[in-house]
Write a structure and sequence with these properties.
This protein is 37% helix and 26% strand. It has 25 helices and 35 strands. The chain has a 6-stranded mixed beta sheet with strand order 10-14-15-13-12-11. Helix 21 (726-738) links the parallel strand 31 (718-722) and strand 32 (742-746). The longest helix has 28 residues, at 173-200. The protein is globular and about 95 Å long.
Length: 841
């Protein structure tokens, strides 16, 4: 992309975000000349730059908006219709910029639907005092006490701004990330040297090491400052969102912000941007009443949402509060009971604060009907998961009729964190200091006494019972009978849940550099990463949220503690996904089980032949396909490639960036019509496109699914796959087709029987066990009872393959029992079943 165009896109996007914010302020304060001048200058700059770059469509839009703005500057009254129209222009400009960034050309088409009403309003606007709209070129002297803002390039007021502009530069985010990585390694080296100096007792090293430690701390602080951004960056679009929501809902809502200049790490800022939007939308929709309701309750007609941020130690406190109706505790109870989230006996003993925690359960909603704003039960669970993912907490307080307040407590940064080093079973572990409330030495006294409730250990701490997790027992590294022999308890809090972690010893706190877990350990939710200590030891970092899952249910009943809200779908299987970016910043994913290898090839080694991109890979030519048309294949530098291989052939799928490997529940929530995309699912708390691998394989080799010989093509065995999950049906179909089978699909037992009523030429039937309406066991019984079908082998699929569950499956008539995502096991089972059928024939 041309560098000048890149700069234009960057600066214009920043300007438009500011225009969004200022226009909403201007609508509320139309006589504020400073705001008006600021908006006019920004729009004028956009127009001028468009003309210079030869972007006529953008220039025409900006010119029409600027003309109307000039009428306002001349003294014409500002109307809501005019502001709404200008906001629509800003939205249109953003859409055009998105296409311009992708294609480096303006999209075809015109904008008369916006330009015509802009010109009409400009023609109707008449200045009361016939003020010259261009009087800024020959302005009168300001009256005493009046501050005038200079509109144009060369005024005295602009000299300081120009100086400030020259004092700042733009730096690529990747550069800052590399600097942070280098500083992290320096911190590790400093810790190692300090540890060596302590062990060797070498006084001559003390001075230089103190200087090194000081310089490292200053460098770390300096690099951290380059990563810091004001939280107001995440708030810029909220005034516009609240304004639009107010118009759509017929409510008068004012948004107040405080502490917008509070800074935090940009990585944390990006993770909380969506949660903040969710919470503000919920406050506008669920919290604030209509004007009529507020009048009836003696409230001002205008509802208020208050957004504030402030530093507190190494954390930031963010509060989203409204003066609306508050949470309806009785309604939440009724919904929780109806959804089966809690038993009536347990609900009776819950406090209001505990009941309010149900709003964070995925899928939970108290809305009467689904709208385009709310009612789907999506939002607050994402808030909680995103905040807890970065070691933060969410607290909710509500007063009926007075309003609701959400308080987020989040760390300033994630790269280098303070941690408490503990010991258990002879091994050391790190616990993030953010989650640690206090340390307690267990003893037989009254104050810190260990008790048991229904067999589960609890700690009596200041007349409050806290559930306990024995870390050694949880990890299986130690067998201890209790904590009376001088054990330590780390009192920890995750969200509203407080509990104790029992360890053998406590060492000290230390700044640690967080490193990602190995792929082999990512299925262990009790760990969040690893780090290197000063003595060179590699230790694991405990995830307090994962540790909390080891709490006994008995210790949570009827106590003065905050229980974790039940999580629907806890019994559903989790799958490993490879998450990547391709053509945009939105995440995309494929099941990790389908990917043979991850490669990074040198762009210079990519060749062209017959109009196709190829690379020499392991002695053979491997075709390269783009994940979508927006992905650019690099001709130099490092090019990430996902390799799919089968039967001696391989295909490479080109992506922009490999992000992570995530374990999550697999459920396609929105289907897609785009070729190559199965649909969308929530992966790691974000809406993610799931790619259809079976779409790309035949594009690399036309006969990928048709077998490797004419004889095999003539005798392609047919397989019936029965599964209620669209995601698994499509994924398993791709795997079976890749193995040379023809696959028919059924979404449940009843659909499978309807299909089998007319077709019986299946070599094998594969069925999920856990299905609604008709289970896999019931389907198997119906197949075995039908003389036409009883000869067809049956293979069972399940999320859990435990020894206790195998016998009922065998008794139902299934020949084999295979775990989902066991790709080699499934293919081997199908091969064995078809071979046995052929032998019998």
């Amino acid at each position: 992309m041309d560098e000048l165009l890149r700069e234009f896109l960057t600066e214009t996007s920043e300007s438009l975000d500011t225009v969004d914010l200022e226009l909403v302020r201007f609508e509320q304060d139309p006589n504020n000349a400073d705001i008006l001048d600021k908006i006019f200058r920004l729009v004028h700059t956009v127009k001028g730059t468009c003309g210079f770059l030869g972007l006529p469509r953008l220039e025409a839009l900006a010119h029409a908006a600027e003309t109307l703005m000039s009428r306002f500057r001349a003294g014409s009254p500002v109307t809501g219709e005019a502001v709404t129209l200008i906001l629509a222009v800003i939205d249109r400009i953003k859409d055009i910029l998105a296409v311009l960034e992708r294609d480096q050309n303006e999209p075809a088409g015109g904008d008369t639907d916006l330009i015509a009403p802009l010109e009409r309003l400009a023609a109707q606007s008449v200045a009361p005092a016939a003020r010259d709209p261009d009087e800024r070129h020959n302005p009168p002297a300001p009256a005493r006490g009046q501050v005038r803002s200079t509109a144009e390039s060369g005024g005295e007021d602009h000299k300081p701004d120009a100086g400030v502009a020259r004092q700042s530069i733009r730096v690529q985010v990747d550069t800052l990330e590399r600097l942070m990585t280098i500083v992290s390694e320096l911190v590790l080296t400093r810790n190692q040297l300090l540890d060596m100096a302590r062990r060797l007792d070498a006084p001559e090293f003390h001075g230089p090491l103190q200087r090194l430690s000081s310089v490292t701390a200053e460098l770390q602080d300096g690099v951290m400052k380059t990563r810091m951004q004001p939280i107001g960056v995440a708030w810029q679009k909220l005034p516009r969102i609240v304004r639009d929501l107010g118009s759509e809902l017929g409510k008068d809502i004012a948004l107040q912000t405080f502490g917008a200049d509070t800074e935090l790490d940009r990585q944390v800022l990006e993770l909380i941007r969506d949660p903040l939007t969710h919470m503000v939308r919920n406050s506008a929709d669920h919290g604030i009443e209509t004007a009529a309701e507020r009048r009836a309750r003696g409230k001002p007609e205008t509802g208020t949402i208050r957004l504030s941020a402030q530093h507190e130690g190494g954390h930031i406190l963010i509060e989203i509060a409204d003066d609306g109706r508050g949470l309806d505790t009785d309604r939440i109870k009724a919904k929780a009971l109806a959804a089966g989230l809690v038993a009536p006996t347990d609900l009776e003993g819950m406090s209001e604060a505990q009941v309010h925690q149900f709003i964070f359960v995925p899928g939970f909603t108290t809305a009467e009907r689904v709208t385009n704003i709310s009612g789907r039960g999506v939002g607050m669970d994402v808030v909680k998961s995103n905040v807890e993912q970065i070691g933060g907490t969410v607290d909710v307080k509500s007063i009926p009729g007075a309003g609701t307040s959400f308080v987020l407590k989040i760390p300033l940064t994630l790269a280098i964190v303070a941690a408490l080093i503990v010991e258990c079973g002879g091994e050391r572990f790190a616990i993030p200091q953010l989650a640690v409330l206090e340390l307690v030495r267990a003893n037989g006294g009254v104050e810190h006494r260990i008790e048991r409730i229904q067999g589960a250990p609890v700690l009596r701490l200041r007349n409050r019972l806290l559930p306990l997790v024995h870390l050694g027992r949880l990890l299986g590294i130690a067998e201890r009978s209790g904590t009376e022999k001088g054990d330590f308890i780390v009192v920890t809090q995750v969200g509203g849940q407080r509990f104790g972690i029992v360890v053998d010893g406590v060492f000290h706190t230390e700044e640690i550099v967080v490193k990602p877990l190995s792929r082999k350990l990512r299925h262990l939710s009790v760990f969040s990463g690893n780090t290197i200590l000063g003595d060179g030891s590699v230790i694991l970092i405990l995830d307090p949220s994962g540790v909390a899952q080891g709490l006994g249910a008995a210790s949570m009943r009827g106590q003065d503690v905050e229980p974790a809200a039940p999580e629907p779908g806890a019994g559903e299987e989790k799958s490993s996904f490879l998450v990547f970016r391709a053509g945009s910043q939105e995440p995309k994913a494929v099941p990790l089980s389908l990917v043979t290898r991850l490669e990074v090839v040198d762009g210079k080694t990519i060749e062209m032949a017959n109009g196709r991109h190829l690379v020499q890979y392991r002695g053979r030519l491997m075709p390269l396909l783009r994940a979508n048309e927006r992905v650019a294949i690099r001709r130099d530098g490092r090019q990430p490639v996902l390799v799919f291989a089968e039967g001696g052939r391989a295909m490479g799928l080109v992506v922009d960036e490999i992000v992570d490997i995530v374990e999550d529940r697999a459920k396609i929530e929105l289907s897609a019509t785009t070729p190559g995309v199965l649909g969308s699912a929530v992966i790691d708390g974000r809406a993610t496109e799931i790619l259809d691998v079976s779409h790309f394989l035949p594009l690399a080799f036309e006969d990928w699914f048709r077998g490797r010989s004419e004889e095999r093509q003539r005798r392609t065995p047919r397989v019936l796959l029965v599964d209620d999950s669209p995601f698994f049906r499509e994924m398993l179909r791709a795997q079976l087709q890749a193995a040379g089978y023809s696959v028919a699909l059924a979404a449940g037992g009843a659909e499978a029987l309807a299909l089998l009523a007319g077709e019986t030429d299946f070599a094998v039937i594969i069925s999920d066990i856990e299905m609604p309406a008709m289970s896999g066991l019931e389907l198997a019984a119906a197949v075995r009872a039908d003389e036409r079908l009883c000869h067809i082998p049956l293979i069972a699929l399940s999320s859990y393959v435990a020894s206790a569950s195998i016998e009922p499956v065998r008794a139902a008539g299934f020949a084999q029992f295979v775990a989902k995502f066991d790709r080699p096991g499934l293919i081997a089972a199908v091969n064995d079943a078809t071979l046995s059928l052929q032998r019998a024939a």
